[in-house]
Structure formats: C-alpha cells, structure tokens
Design a protein that fits this description.
The chain has 469 residues and is α+β, with helices and mostly antiparallel strands. It has two domains: 252 residues, no CATH class; 83 residues, Thrombin, subunit H, CATH 2.40.10. It is 19% helix and 28% strand. The longest helix has 23 residues.
C-alpha cells in the first residue's frame, strides 16, 4: 500500500503564483523533447536595457531662455521698475445731463470719476472722432464747458454718458499770456515680489544599492537615479509654471503670507492684467482677419516689428491653415529680419521656428509643450479657459527712471555675496551615499529656488485665448 506524505514547503519558482501554476507547466514526460517544453519558468527573461520614452521629452522648461529672458540677481524682496505712460493723454469725461442737446454747439461735462483733470482753458479736443471742441471754461467745481468750433455737435450730450476725448492741441489769440498749468509726464511704478519653490526626493540606503534591469545612462542600473532625475525635472517645470501662471495672493484668509508667501505675478497673469487678449484662436475662422485685428492693436501700442509666437497644437494648425489658404507676403523667413536669431534663418530653423510676415511684422511660430501636455495645461478645460498661446515682442525696452535698456522678459533670482538662490540643491543623510549629516538611513535630495519674472511693457504682449469658434 502506497503511503501519502503531506506537509513541507515548496521552493518558490520565478514566475509562478502558486503550486497550481507549477503543475500546469509539467507535461507528459513521454511527449516533451526539451527542457523548455517541460517547464519554461527556468528561462532567463529577455529584458531590454533601454528605457522607452513613451511620451517623448516631457520637460517643459526652456521657454524663458528661448525668448531671450535674461537672468539677473536681486537683493531685495521684490523687483521695482518704471514704465512711461502715453505721451499724448486723453481726457475722460462724463456729461452732466443738463447741457447740449443734439444740434447745440455748447455743453458742460465733468471728469469721469477716478480720473484726473488734464484739460486747460483754450485746449482743443476731438469729439466723437469728427468734431473739434474748444474748452471755453473750467470752474472751481471742475465743470468743463465745451464749444464747437465748426458745425453743431451731432451726438446728444444731454444724457449722462462717459466719453474719451483726445486732446489734439490748443488755440490762443494775439497778445495773450501762457497757460497757467502744465502737464506732468505719467510714469507708472511697477513691482513684483519673489516666490519660493521647493521639492524633495528620498532614497533609503537599501534602495540606493539595488540594481535593476534598465540602463539609465553610462551603464548605471540603479533605479533611484531615474526617480531623482525626474524629481529635479518636475521641480524645474513647476518653477517655470509658477513664473508663467503665478499671482500675487489677494485672498489671504487661508493662504497666509507666512505659510505660502505673498505670491508673484506670472507672465500670463501680467498679460491678462495689462496686455492684449484675443477672444479666440487666431486664424480659426480662416483668412487673415484675425491676425490683421491683432496687428491693428499692436500698432496702437507702438509694438516692435518682431514677435515670437508660442502656441498649442490647435493654434499652430490654425496658423498653418491660414498661411496655406494664400498669403501675399513671404512665408518661411524670406522677408523676416531674424533679429532675435542673430539674423540667421538657419538658427531659427534649428530652433524649430516657422516664420511669416504680415503688415510689417515678422512672426516666429513655435510649439509650446506646456500647452499641449494633457497632465498640465493641455487638458480640455485649460485649453478652453486659459490660453492657446502667447505673442512675445523680441525687443528691449527703456526704463523710464534709469534710462537703461532692459529685456521685455527678465527672470530674477535672489543672490548676494556669492550665495545664489536660483537653483539650490543639497543632500542630507545618515551615511547613505556618503552624506553623513544626519542619523536616518535615508538620503534626502533637497531643491529650492527663489525667483520672479518681470514683464515689461505688458501692453505689447498678446495672450491668445483658447476658445474655438
């Protein structure tokens, strides 16, 4: 009688989840021809060492450098700069609702609430873009009396309505005295505080000595190196996104200055606050109407003749379709100045720019990864509500107070006496990887940066909204 034996522990087999899987692998001994037919779990796995870049190069940094943003050291908690106002100012007025019905030649108005009085007696303004009015009197209460120089005022001024009147000049008779008051140049002081970005990565001493299958470069197979490199790239990306999207904190109820800092104005925020914003994707409706509308606004702002366009895929395709539909100007840089690329068309091509000219402007188009990544600003909501791209003037501007020329975009970092907070990196550990400044069996990689972005003359920058028609 045969005996049965129970108990005992099976040795683990690589690739087998249970004893049943081992039994399933055993074939009829009379039929197998090789060991591989009998039990294939003993074969070494054929693992390739190369790491597949499934999503391509996922880093988004480099935008600021490619558009010429200059790095400068700062030694205060904020950067201050000055921008000049319009040379020719306009008077904003509110009609008082009592004088000057349609067809009259005189009416009375006051300055619009919250705006300064710029007009003086004998000044001449342009009314409704067609009628010249002279200022015949300004009383102590600020009431301004206008008198038509030619035909009667065509638009009724009796209703209480706001108007904007360009001041085109003045008129004086022979032997009269000079003006009693003068106009002061309008200089705007702007400022932007710094923001602090931080990150960490940790690896235990045990994990730091584990060797994997994947070659991470130079024959190094330790996986923690990959995780540390990814952490560093995420940190740089997040720092750049804060320089793009950051806001000065207004609601400090829960987001306290002590815990979060006061925030810093990012590039897209600066354009929304002070720049030009389109209502749609440029070129989405075919033809050149959209880009021509942008050009007309750039003309009003005294914009330079050369722009870099960083756009998402939808905006890039819309421009390609617009150009393919027929263009009367040169495409591909034949008429472009390439001042941003040392006047080299080859350099522009190598950087991935596509250039076209229209209305005296050169536009260098480039895809922007930040707006295409679905895990960042390329998700459906962001594409609709945030941006489809930006148009950046490739120029320098003059600081009104110092007279120095400065770039349109400038990234600043805190630094003093050889200590820089642009990109701080240090490691703490209890002997792990040779870092003996702690007691825990862990190496902690630390990252810190204190930076801000100065957007000068934001009125010359364009934010392209991602709302498709």
């Amino acid at each position: 009688m045969a005996i049965s034996v129970t108990g005992g522990t099976e040795q683990p087999v690589v690739g087998a989840a249970s004893i049943d899987s081992i039994k399933a692998a055993v074939k009829d001994p009379a039929k197998y021809t090789s060991l591989g037919d009998f039990i294939d779990e003993v074969n070494a796995p054929d693992i390739r060492a190369a790491l597949v870049k499934t999503y391509g190069d996922q880093g988004i940094t480099g935008f600021l450098k490619m558009v010429g943003a200059v790095n400068n050291a700062g030694s205060a908690d904020k950067v201050e700069w000055y921008e000049e106002g319009r040379l020719h100012q306009r008077q904003e007025i509110t009609t008082d609702g009592t004088g000057g019905a349609s067809g009259a030649d005189t009416f009375v108005a006051t300055t619009k609430s919250g705006t300064p009085l710029l007009l003086r007696p004998n000044d001449v303004v342009l009314w409704e873009g067609k009628t010249l009015l002279a200022v015949t009197g300004i009383d102590s209460s600020g009431n301004i009396t206008f008198h038509s120089l030619g035909s009667s005022i065509e638009t009724a001024a009796a209703a209480s309505t706001d108007y904007v009147c360009p001041i085109v000049g003045n008129m004086f008779g022979q032997g009269t005295d000079q003006q009693e008051k003068f106009l002061q140049s309008n200089v705007v002081k702007r400022e932007n505080p710094y923001t602090i970005t931080k990150e960490i990565y940790k690896v235990t001493g045990s994990q730091a000595t584990n060797v994997g299958y994947i070659d991470l470069g130079g024959g190094d197979y330790r996986w923690y190196i990959k995780s540390e490199m990814d952490t560093r790239q995420r940190f740089l990306d997040k720092r750049e996104m804060m320089l793009m999207l950051g806001e000065v904190v207004a609601n400090t109820t829960d987001v306290t200055d002590a815990a979060f800092g006061g925030g810093s104005e990012g590039y897209l925020t600066a354009i929304k606050n002070r720049g030009l914003v389109t209502s749609d994707v440029v070129g989405e409706n075919a033809g050149f109407g959209d880009i021509d509308a942008v050009i007309r606004e750039l003309d009003k702002q005294g914009a330079p003749a050369e722009y870099a366009m960083y756009v998402n895929t939808d905006q890039s395709l819309a421009i390609d379709d617009m150009l393919a539909g027929g263009i009367g100007t040169n495409v591909g840089g034949l008429a472009a100045s390439y001042g941003a690329f040392n006047n080299s068309a080859d350099m522009a091509v190598n950087l991935g720019f596509k250039t076209f000219s229209r209305g005296g402007y050169s536009f260098h188009k480039h895809d922007w990864k930040l707006l295409n990544d679905p895990t960042l600003l390329g998700n459906a909501n962001a594409a609709t509500n945030l941006a489809a791209g930006v148009m950046i003037p490739l120029t320098t501007v003059v600081d009104t107070k110092s007279g120095e020329r400065a770039p349109a975009l400038e990234m600043n970092y805190k630094a003093s006496n050889g200590y820089s907070r642009e990109m701080e990196h240090w490691v703490t550990g209890g002997g792990v990887l040779g870092f003996s400044n702690g007691t825990k069996d862990v190496a902690q990689f630390n990252y810190r940066s204190e930076c801000n972005l100065v957007t000068r003359a934001a009125n010359q920058h364009v934010l392209i909204k991602g709302v498709k028609a």
